[in-house]
Amino acid sequence: MDNFEPLDPLLHSQLRLAVMSLLISLEDAEFTFIKEKTQATAGNLSVQLDKLDQAGYISISKSFKGKRPLTTCKITTTGIKAFEAYVLALKKYLP
Amino acid sequence: MKEELTHQESLDLITEMIKQAKRNVAKGGSKQILLWGWTIALANFGHYFLAMAGIPSPYIIWLITIPAAVTSAVIGTKMRQRGATGHIDSVYAKVWIAAGVSIVICLSMMHKINFNHNAVILLIAGMGMFITGSLLRFTPILLGSFVLWLAALISFNLPEIQQYIVAGSAIILGYLIPGYLLKRAERG
Questions:
Q1: Which letter does DSSP use for residue A74 in this model?
Q2: How many Å separate Cα A65 from the centre of its chain?
Q3: What is the ipTM metric for this complex?
Q4: From the CA of B34, how many Å to the nearest CA of chain A?
Q5: Nearest CB partner across the interface for B14, out of A28, A38, A87
């Protein structure tokens, strides 16, 4: 019988899961792209990205596009492993 | 956005976001194919007809690849400005950069390969199309690679000047037509 593993609390949140699901399919994505796709507010998205960054699930790089600041996010190897583990655990909960 | 998710909602969210990412980045490749398809086809036919008309230095027609390269770089930059790079986009770009470098080396050494450069370029383009078709999972592009390889085989057995006609025709059949089919698929 399958054990019901607890779901990673960092990923089991709508916005953070949405961000990780986007980034798992991409090489990298800009802040504005993630904001548009997740329909989150800039403030909330910044907070959640910081949490994912602190956990080592994503890496955030800051640069400039012309004169405008540019924030680019990329999923890390730790993030990929955590996401895969989350999906595996999730499968066990579903009928 | 709410914090608590049911398990089904989690799964639906993952699926939707992956779909969103795919939808956004896997488009736009046809622009590059059409740009280079028309440029190379025109240069091949142009070279043949200028040579047949007795015009000296018919290879001057290949200068049209310079504005094409500039336009290609602009298209590439615009594609990047969509805010995200997909895994396929990244590999796709690298395949054609590798093909471009190989073609330039081949052209610079054309005297060493007995002026069979058209045939070799068709081989390289066929390989690029085969990998692109496999990455995009788009059969017309895959089939296009076989047209280019067949044209390479024919070209190896023809005099240099006739190779331009074969190459121009192969680019229309094996490169431009699949490119237009891809453009239609991207719209759908």
A1: E
A2: 23
A3: 0.83
A4: 25
A5: A87
Contact A14 B8 (CB under 8 A): no
Q: Considering chain B, what percentage of its residues have pLDDT values greater than 70? A: 92
CA torsion, points B112, B118, B120, B123, in degrees to nearest 10? 180
Which pairing describes strands A68-75 and A26-30: parallel, antiparallel, or unpaired?
antiparallel
In which element (H, E) is residue A68 found? strand A68-75
3-state secondary structure chain B: CCCCCCHHHHHHHHHHHHHHHHHHHCCCHHHHHHHHHHHHHHHHHHHHHHHHCCCCCHHHHHHHHHHHHHHHHHHHHHHHCCCEEEHHHHHHHHHHHHHHHHHHHHHHCCCCCCCCHHHHHHHHHHHHHHHHHHHHCCHHHHHHHHHHHHHHHHHCCCCHHHHHHHHHHHHHHHHHHHHHHHHHHHHC
* Stated pTM of the model: 0.73
What pLDDT, on the 0 to 100 scale, is given for residue A1? 45
Structure tokens at B109: 């050494």
The residue of chain B nearest to residue A44, with distances taken between CA atoms, is: B1
Contact A8, A82 (CB under 8 A): yes
* pLDDT, tens digit, 9 for 90 and up, residues A28-77: 999 999 999 999 999 999 999 999 999 999 999 998 877 888 899 999 99
A68-75: strand order across its sheet: A58-65, A68-75, A26-30, B84-86
Per CB-CB distance under 8 Å, the chain B contacts of A25 are 17-18, 21-22, 86-87
Produce one character per residue of B3-18: b if its CB has 16 or more CB atoms within 10 Å, e if not.
Answer: eebebeebbebbeebe
Choose the closest CB to B2 out of A14, A22, A93.
Answer: A14
